[in-house]
Design a protein that fits this description.
By secondary structure, this protein is α/β, with parallel strands linked by helices. The protein has 2 domains: 225 residues, Spore Coat Polysaccharide Biosynthesis Protein SpsA, Chain A; 65 residues. It has an 8-stranded mixed beta sheet with strand order 7-5-6-4-1-2-3-8, sandwiched between helices. The protein is elongated, with a radius of gyration of 25 Å.
């Protein structure tokens, strides 16, 4: 099979029939063999009923329904597990991602040799309260990660199948799949300018809080990609540095007390600063040691309760 399309969705019953028909037209016109996986992330409307009807009329369409809302990362994780196509395309279900981009994305993976291609919505149909924070967020992400993508969080992406089988998407890490892919050894990451369609049905499922969560997740993924398997390198290193700073301060005070000055150690504020840095150093070192133990005994965290599957 050439292409798997993975579509996470939440309360998108109105857009699903049009989206499925649009994808089918593109696939037939380009003579692609394909499958569509619609992952219903605990929708409260009639989205699952729409998926069932679509799967009944088109055997290329499959669906998975979560018992409750787990989030986009969980939906992508399950969709990636099911995908069998040589190239895996992800897109949102709200019709703001254009299926007409699929042939070019497919070519960039199969012909141009990219491992992953991320869409770039250069012209967006979003309010300024969303576009400006998005630009700041993407600029910060490029600075911290070194991956020169303009739209890291774009839902329209294409992957070589090996990529999605080699990464672990959990929590809210769907925003940083390119970072996870690079960590897994897939460094040929490309970008394509894609169309951004105005929202036709419903309302956005994301509020302003996603920018705060996104920044916190960025710090988390930056730490995880560098130190997930070796936490002692950062905590232990900072602990040793802090300990020796405190030790040097204490030694300085002792030498001054013995040879140069007559004072009580507890009367010097520097004494308390040195004592605190020694204690912090010990705590950081212990944190690094415990982190090493956790890293070596971590268990599977991706367990999602699936209610139905087609």
């Amino acid at each position: 099979m050439q292409i798997s399309v993975v579509i996470p969705l939440f309360n998108e019953e109105e857009s699903l029939p049009e989206l499925a028909a649009w994808i089918d037209r593109v696939m037939v016109a380009n003579q692609f063999t394909y499958e569509i996986w619609m992952i219903d992330d605990g929708s409260k409307d009639q989205s699952w009923k729409a998926v069932q009807q679509l799967a009944y009329t088109n055997k290329n369409i499959h669906g998975v329904r979560f018992q409750r809302n787990y989030g986009k990362s969980a939906a992508l994780h399950v969709g990636f597990e099911q995908a069998k196509g040589d190239v895996v395309i992800t897109m949102d279900a709200d019709l703001q991602d254009s299926p007409d981009e699929i042939p070019a994305l497919y070519q960039m993976i199969t012909k141009d040799g990219f491992d992953l291609v991320s869409g770039w919505k250069q012209k967006r149909y979003d309010p300024i309260t969303k576009t400006i924070p998005t630009k700041l967020y993407n600029g910060t992400t490029r600075l911290l990660t070194g991956i020169p993508l303009h739209d890291m969080n774009c839902g329209l992406k294409a992957y070589r199948n090996e990529v999605i089988k080699s990464i672990e998407v959990y929590g809210e890490m769907h925003r940083y799949i390119p970072i996870l892919a690079r960590k897994a050894g897939f460094r040929n990451i490309g970008e394509k300018v894609v169309q951004h369609q105005p929202r036709k049905f419903g309302v956005t499922k994301f509020g302003m809080e996603r920018f705060l969560y996104g920044f916190l997740d960025l710090l988390s993924v930056s730490f995880m990609t560098r130190f997930a398997n070796r936490p002692m390198h950062i905590f232990g290193g900072l602990g040793v540095l802090s300990f020796f700073i405190g030790f040097a301060i204490t030694l300085y005070l002792i030498i001054g007390k013995i040879f140069f000055e007559q004072y009580r150690m507890t009367e010097r504020p520097l004494f308390y600063f040195g004592l605190v840095t020694v204690i912090i150093g010990v705590q950081l070192f212990v944190a690094g040691f415990l982190g090493e133990l956790v890293a070596r005994s971590s268990s599977d965290r991706n367990k999602y309760l699936i209610r139905e599957s087609l």
